[in-house]
UniProtKB/TrEMBL annotation, chain A:
Residues 159-305 form the Aspartate/ornithine carbamoyltransferase Asp/Orn-binding domain. Catalyzes the condensation of carbamoyl phosphate and aspartate to form carbamoyl aspartate and inorganic phosphate, the committed step in the de novo pyrimidine nucleotide biosynthesis pathway. Pfam families: OTCace, OTCace_N. One of its GO terms (cellular component) is cytosol. Pathway: Pyrimidine metabolism; UMP biosynthesis via de novo pathway; (S)-dihydroorotate from bicarbonate: step 2/3. The lineage of its organism: Bacteria, Pseudomonadati, Thermodesulfobacteriota, Desulfobulbia, Desulfobulbales. This is Aspartate carbamoyltransferase.
TrEMBL record, chain B:
Substrate binds at residues 60-62, 92, 307. GO terms for cellular component: cytoplasm. GO terms for molecular function: allantoinase activity; dihydroorotase activity; zinc ion binding. The active site is at 303. Zn(2+) 2 binds at residues 150, 177, 230. Its EC number is 3.5.2.3. Zn(2+) 1 binds at residues 58, 60, 150, 303. The lineage of its organism: Bacteria, Pseudomonadati, Thermodesulfobacteriota, Desulfobulbia, Desulfobulbales. It comes from Candidatus Desulfatifera sulfidica. Binds 2 Zn(2+) ions per subunit. Belongs to the metallo-dependent hydrolases superfamily. DHOase family. Class I DHOase subfamily. Catalyzes the reversible cyclization of carbamoyl aspartate to dihydroorotate. Keywords: Hydrolase, Metal-binding, Pyrimidine biosynthesis, Zinc. It is an enzyme of class 3 (hydrolase). This is Dihydroorotase.
Length: 318, 426
């Protein structure tokens, strides 16, 4: 890591905005924060006096909890607003909501929204730093980063690895951030799933489209299954979960072609028996819970970096 | 203005009469006249073009019902500023223009406050709900010039067939908003690499071409004419070109944004670049240009669609479709002339003569005896396209802060000065 590296991003909207050096810097920062979570007193004063708002327009337990824990472990003051308690139901526009929150001078607004680009819109209307906690079917940058961190931890590198992402790529912001992140760090990214789950011109994002799960998994160092979103039934994408599990589910059988030390990943929560068999989710090579643990460290790093990375003593101007 | 005025020294372009030369043109008593008295007031137009007033066959004036976005007064004032002397306004107002009372209201307000001729377009179906025919005869008697359910496709093919047949009996043009909703629903931009990257549901060009194919088949079946609105896709253009070649009675328009911009304009979730059909790929844009050159397109229309910040400063997928276009259309079309793609004569054909012919309205030429509907253009005048200068009530344009070249400096509608940026008439 270069000593002189300076993180220049005021908002975290997606992995697309980062250079490989940016990503390495975030991951290095996350690693330096990770041990805080294993101490008896899990708290440092880094964000003392900082106000951090979790503005969630979509239901979330783990991402919101992860951000909240990250902020609290750094002594930030956190506040949660979910769509059901906000003015969204009263017809207040997103910008109005954001301006009202801005008037209370928060430092960071962490936003999850069902519309792609909602964090971008907010970033144009508020002074606070915006962190995208998932927007529509666009990106989920902190998830992409925690996945990169997890792979780096277990493999020591990302460059040169083969990563297979299986499932509903079209509607998965996790998949989008992962494709972008792994490709930026030099991994070879393969995707597979029913054609109805593959968005047009996916190769332009740096992924190779495989015709079958077996082909995608062949020799893979990392296999990641995506959650099937059962609520997407207004669009005829797949005939049944049963058929999906049989042809696109990750089980021991299909993993025989993968590398011996293949890592099994899933952004959670797992539909056991649909996109992944229980023995795979809980078995050898599964790092699903490591992903969750690293989520806190990555989010601590993001909170720290968007506020300028000011540690006591400062690091000097660049 | 009853006095006789002679415009001299300007380049007169009038494709209907095969004219493109420097010369004189006189108007008096609201008409173009062949002879002028010796003491007539003379206005020197050296370096300027004098053309028939532009006619926009596809605008949304939002009145009645959405006057916070635009009114007949502000929309036609914007039209005059853009060199237009007539506009055809789509029926998707509140209430929908699906009956004579609404048509009459629009025309009364236009007569009282308008700065351009207003030709109302009635609805194809009651409420534009796509279920039953609206009363074309009643609306025609009140003043509509065409029917369309613009903004929405007519989903039921049988209803569309009946509309074509029934409208023909009343001498009305049917204008199709061609969109296969099953394919476009939920989409907010062109389908492709960029929609994938931005995580937005795409609208494939097939959503447009499938419905255009149906419209062409119905026009062929019934032997009646149809006009296809706002064509954006190369595949759709091919269908229209082939249909014209085999004699189908079809005319078609595109809009300046489709020959100027591509889907790249939506990057950054720019809602000012969101419209239906969506901005397409560079290959589509080139095909649109080619179709303007080879005659597949008959007309350029703006699809002027004012929306306020309430509809546009929102999440991209929630934002309303449409952009304003009356004040940017001419400079954008002049850019095609400067690039050598089309001649000035072709521009006037596309933006004045053809729309007049398709709608069956006066204007579109400089024939003596016709109405004094004129636009005087300075093709070289450079200006910044700035929100503060717009007459339209809404500012939803992807061209804000563009440096543009060429605009109307004087617009005369029915002998009345409707726009005069140089103060030629004090």
């Amino acid at each position: 890591m270069k000593n002189e590296f300076s993180f220049q991003h005021r908002h975290i909207l997606g992995l697309e905005q980062f250079s490989p050096d940016d990503i390495h810097h975030i991951l290095a920062t996350a690693r330096s924060f990770k041990d805080i979570s294993s101490r008896a007193i899990k708290k440092v004063p880094t964000l003392r006096g900082r106000t951090i708002i979790n503005l969630f327009f979509e239901p979330s337990t783990r991402t919101r909890l992860s951000f909240e824990i990250a902020a609290k472990r750094m002594s930030g003051d956190t506040f949660n607003i979910s769509a059901s308690t906000s003015s969204a139901t009263k017809g207040e526009s997103l910008i109005d909501t954001a301006r009202n929150i801005q008037a209370m001078s928060p430092d960071i607004i962490i936003v999850r929204h069902s519309s792609s680009g909602a964090p971008h819109l907010l970033s144009r209307h508020v002074q606070a730093a915006i962190i995208n906690a998932g927007d529509g079917t666009h990106e989920h940058p902190s998830q992409g980063l925690l996945d990169l961190m997890t792979v780096m931890e277990h493999k020591g590198r990302v460059e040169g690895l083969t990563v297979a992402i299986i499932g509903d790529i079209a509607h998965s912001r996790v998949a989008h951030s992962n494709i972008i992140g792994f490709a930026k760090l030099g991994a070879s990214v393969r995707v597979a799933g029913p054609m109805t789950f593959l968005p047009p011109q996916l190769t332009s994002m740096g992924a190779t489209v495989c015709r079958s799960v077996a082909e995608a998994v062949e020799g893979a160092d990392v296999v990641m299954a995506l959650r099937i979103q059962k609520e997407r039934q207004n669009d005829p994408l797949i005939p049944s979960l049963r058929e999906y599990a049989r042809f696109y589910g990750i089980n021991r059988d299909v993993l025989r072609g993968a590398a011996d030390d293949v890592l099994i990943m899933h952004p959670g929560p797992v539909n056991r028996g649909v996109e992944m068999s229980p023995d795979v989710a809980d078995g050898q090579g599964s790092v699903i819970l490591d992903q969750v643990a690293n989520g806190v460290a990555v989010r601590m790093a993001l909170l720290y970096l968007v506020l300028g990375g000011e540690k006591s003593g400062g690091e000097g101007a660049s | 203005m009853s006095e006789c005025i002679v415009f001299s020294g300007g380049r007169i372009i009038d494709p209907v009469n095969g004219i493109d030369h420097v010369g004189e043109l006189a108007i008096a008593d609201g008409c173009i006249v062949a002879d002028s008295p010796a003491d007539a007031r003379r206005i020197d137009l050296t370096g300027k073009w004098l053309i028939p007033g532009l006619i926009d066959m596809h605008v949304h004036l939002r009145e009645p019902g959405e006057e916070y976005k635009e009114t007949i007064a502000t929309g036609t004032r914007a039209a005059a500023a853009g060199g237009f002397t007539a506009v055809a306004c789509m029926p998707n107002t509140r209430p929908v223009n699906d009956e004579a009372a609404v048509t009459r209201l629009i025309l009364e307000n236009a007569a009282a406050e308008g700065s351009a001729r207003v030709y109302p377009v009635g609805a194809i179906s009651r409420g534009s709900r796509g279920e039953e025919l609206a009363e074309y005869g009643e609306m025609k008697a009140a003043g509509i010039r065409a029917v369309s359910d613009d903004g929405l496709p007519v989903v039921d093919s049988q209803l569309m067939r009946r509309a074509l047949e029934y409208a023909a009996g009343h001498g009305l043009l049917v204008i199709s908003h061609s969109e296969e909703h099953a394919l476009s629903r939920g989409g907010s931009m062109n389908e492709g690499a960029l929609s994938t990257r931005m995580g937005l549901r795409g609208i494939p060009t097939a959503a447009e071409s499938i419905m255009i194919y149906r419209e062409l088949a119905l026009a062929e079946l019934t032997g009646q004419r149809i006009h296809i609105a706002h064509v954006s896709a190369a595949s759709a253009i091919d269908l229209i070109r082939q249909a014209k070649a085999r004699g189908v009675r079809v005319t078609a328009e595109t809009a300046p944004h489709y020959f100027t911009l591509t889907e790249a304009a939506v990057d950054g979730y720019n809602t000012h670049a969101k419209m239906s059909p969506p901005l397409r790929s560079e290959a589509d844009r080139k095909a649109v240009c080619q179709a303007l050159v080879d005659g597949t397109f008959d007309a350029i229309a703006t699809d002027h669609a004012p929306h306020s910040v309430l509809e546009k400063e929102v999440e991209f997928d929630q934002a309303a479709n449409g952009i304003i276009g009356l004040e940017s259309a001419l400079p954008l079309a002049l850019a095609l002339v400067r690039k050598g793609l089309i001649t000035p004569t072709r521009l006037v054909e596309l933006m004045s003569a053809a729309p007049a012919r398709i709608l069956g309205v006066e204007g579109g030429s400089l024939t003596p005896g016709g109405p004094a509907d004129l636009a005087i253009i300075d093709p070289d005048l450079e200006f910044l396209f700035s929100a503060e200068d717009l007459y339209s009530k809404s500012k939803n344009s992807p061209f804000l802060d563009w440096s543009m070249q060429g605009r109307a400096i004087l617009t005369i509608c029915n002998g009345r000065i409707t726009h005069d940026i140089l103060g030629l008439f004090g």
